[in-house]
Amino acid sequence: MLWDYIFVGGGLSASVVSSRLHHLDPALKILVIEAGGNANNDPSVVYPNSTNLIGGEYDWKYQTIPQVNLDNRQVDLPCGKALGGGTVINSGGWIRGDKFDFDLWGDTVGDHRWSYAGLLPYMKLTETAPAPVKNPDEHGTDGPMLIQSIESTHREFPLRNKTLESWQEVGVHPLPNNDGNAGNPLGIGDLFENKNQGRREIADNVFKLTGITVLTETLVSKVLLSTPKSHNQAPEATGVQLANGTKIQGKEIILAAGAIRTAQLLMLSGIGPSDELHKFKIPVVLNQPEVGKNFADHGLFGALWALKDPSAGYAIGSANPLFNEPQYGYGTPADFLVSTGITDKAGLAAAIEKDEGKKPDPKKHPLLKQDRTFNEHVFQYAGTPDGSAVTFALINLLPTSKGSVTLKSANINDVPNIDPNYHATEVDKFVAREGIRLQIAFANSNRTVIGRDIIAGELGAPGFNETFTTASTDAYIDARIAAGLGSTFHPMGTAAMGKVVDTNLKVKGINKLRVVDTSVFPVVITAHLQVATYATAYQAADIIYNSLKCSTK
Ligand SMILES: Cc1cc2nc3c(=O)[nH]c(=O)nc-3n(C[C@H](O)[C@H](O)[C@H](O)COP(=O)(O)OP(=O)(O)OC[C@H]3O[C@@H](n4cnc5c(N)ncnc54)[C@H](O)[C@@H]3O)c2cc1C
């Protein structure tokens, strides 16, 4: 059998691209090969309050190498291992991000299909936004992915108004229509989730794989590449080899194994930095130094804040009967996603100067010339099982540190070295500190109603004998972050567009091989990655189909 398309990995991106290709031409012979199983009907992941997510059977349970800027800790980096990939275990935050990033992406690669305007049609095609849709120019109303909001699920958290008021008291204001998913997330937006009344929407349940041949529990070990007959020809992908040695032939191979495994598979196939390949005696088909580089992930820091009066029933776990109603289990117990830039521009400029060795020009530097989305704050009405505390999550959305994925061996069964290189830059440390200071001002100062009336204080962390207060020093905040920062589970950038793949997602220098997953993001997307990944994959299907049509004309 010669397949028209073989997908390596059956995660989010592969589900969308293969499903769309089948829709566009049902005669295509498409094979999807997924290392994990099929969780689509597993109640332990599909229904609310699942405990079978991170750390469960559908998680690869990766760990980073020791992070030198985080007390040499190895950080857990879960990734989905099942049809649907990350969507089987993810948190369901439906967060579009900042128009600026997509425009930067389009400019960086010189192709405006990847700008915000280029991707917006696909973002809209993917979703059915929760009714009432206040700005239809920005939102889809009949896409396959159903989006829920706090309003559409009839959750009325007791602290909503005070939370809203407190954000404004520290200078953060609601976005028009409270919509952070309309290209400008800087401000207060309502939390959106891709859940249907709490039910998980797994990518391949939404973009159905009917008509597509699917192999689960099957690990691909490399791409098979032909040796070119002459010097001016490029090597060509002809199939894949499974970990058990079986070879499967295809006319075109699409790597969609996620930012960690796609980079590994490229290298195991002989496409990567030649010095890295030589270390493991892998024959070099293409010296491509950028494979595995440009790796970024968003750091996540959580802190627990004790309530002054736990009996008031503000948090899940308390005796408040409201929380026994089923809708309170439908999603993250938070009203808002709050995205912020940096107000202390002089401090940011000083951090940039330390990293780059020269004073940045505020009119030209990409981090200074306009407001960027640096931090996200999620004030969650849950913290401890007894409902006596709430959680403040800080997500550093615009890391300037770059990490890498490198090989540990020539064996696909060995997880590669995963190095997000968190907080390697002064900018990242400065931005995280600013985020924590804003959260302290919100939760623990006289400036806000939450600080005055609701929260008693921060609960601290093991090994520290002080807690976050308005008097916390930079050194203390840095130490807490080094001890506690984790991953937001958003690996990206390891086969960056413009460097490793071209704007048609073809691996440069190799014929018949593409990459479609978060590896291709050439710039950091300042959002949780689902929305950008769905849109990228949706557009990729059109690009692949159009190139097929052109080649058969
Ligand atoms: C715990 C968690 C929480 C998250 N929360 C959110 C959130 O709230 N909002 C949001 O927007 N994003 C979230 N994300 C991120 C989002 O789910 C991912 O960015 C997205 O799934 C990436 O899509 P992808 O197609 O690049 O890769 P994936 O969806 O990861 O798919 C890759 C697939 O390839 C398979 N594979 C890998 N190697 C091989 C191989 N050698 N052979 C065969 N198959 C292979 C994997 O098993 C996997 O199924 C979260 C992710 C995780 C893990």
TrEMBL record:
Gene3D superfamilies, per this entry? FAD/NAD(P)-binding domain, Glucose Oxidase, domain 3
Q: Which keywords are on file for this protein?
A: FAD, Flavoprotein
Name recorded for this polypeptide = GMC oxidoreductase
Q: Could you name the active-site residues? A: H490, H528
Please give the organism. Answer: Trichoderma harzianum CBS 226.95
Where are the coiled-coil regions? none
Mind telling me which SUPFAM superfamilies this protein's record contains?
FAD-linked reductases, C-terminal domain, FAD/NAD(P)-binding domain
Q: Where in this chain does the record put each Glucose-methanol-choline oxidoreductase N-terminal domain? A: 80-103
Task: List required co-factors.
Answer: FAD
* Similarity comment: family membership: Belongs to the GMC oxidoreductase family.
Question: Does the record's keyword annotation contain Membrane?
Answer: no
Binding annotation for FAD:
V220
Gene Ontology MF terms: flavin adenine dinucleotide binding; oxidoreductase activity, acting on CH-OH group of donors
Keyword Flavoprotein attached: yes
